[in-house]
Design brief:
This protein is mainly alpha-helical. Helix content is about 55%, strand content about 10%. Strand 2 and strand 3 form a beta hairpin. The radius of gyration is 30 Å and the shape is elongated. The mean pLDDT is about 85.
Length: about 130
């Protein structure tokens, strides 16, 4: 159980940074080198390598060294734990969204000022105070 929790923490930590999420999205289409992962993100090779290391530690990326090239491949299996964790809470979100939908679908309540005959939206005029000119 503790090991599962640590793995889940590592996956969510890896997903917490937008650059790593973008790397994973691009790796879903096929293997890429660290340089190819870094290029569209406008980051150095060293910075990209650090991000890849976080993804590796979470088990989301497998890196193979071929000479000077580091080729990365997506390993999606660890995402299953994160998906299962999120699905558990999905029913709570669905209940909240359904309740909001019911509130928004209700017809508006009648305006009490418009319901009473003889009332208007105009501000009533004030009577002059004693000694005040009218």
């Amino acid at each position: 159980m503790v090991e599962d929790s640590l793995e889940l923490d590592a996956v969510f930590h890896a997903l917490a940074h937008d650059a790593r999420r973008e790397m994973l999205r691009r790796l879903a289409t096929g293997a890429l080198t660290v340089g190819q992962l870094a290029e569209p993100l406008l980051m150095s090779l060293a910075a990209a390598s650090k991000h890849v290391k976080v993804l590796e530690n979470a088990g989301l990326v497998e890196r193979t060294v071929m000479g000077r090239r580091h080729v990365c491949r997506l390993r999606s299996a660890p995402l299953a734990g994160a998906v299962a964790w999120l699905r558990f809470y999905e029913r709570f979100w669905d209940e909240r969204i359904d309740a909001l939908e019911r509130v928004l679908d209700r017809p508006p309540a009648p305006d009490p000022a418009q319901a009473r005959p003889g009332t208007s939206d105009e501000t009533p005029s004030r009577s002059p105070a004693p000694g005040e000119a009218s």
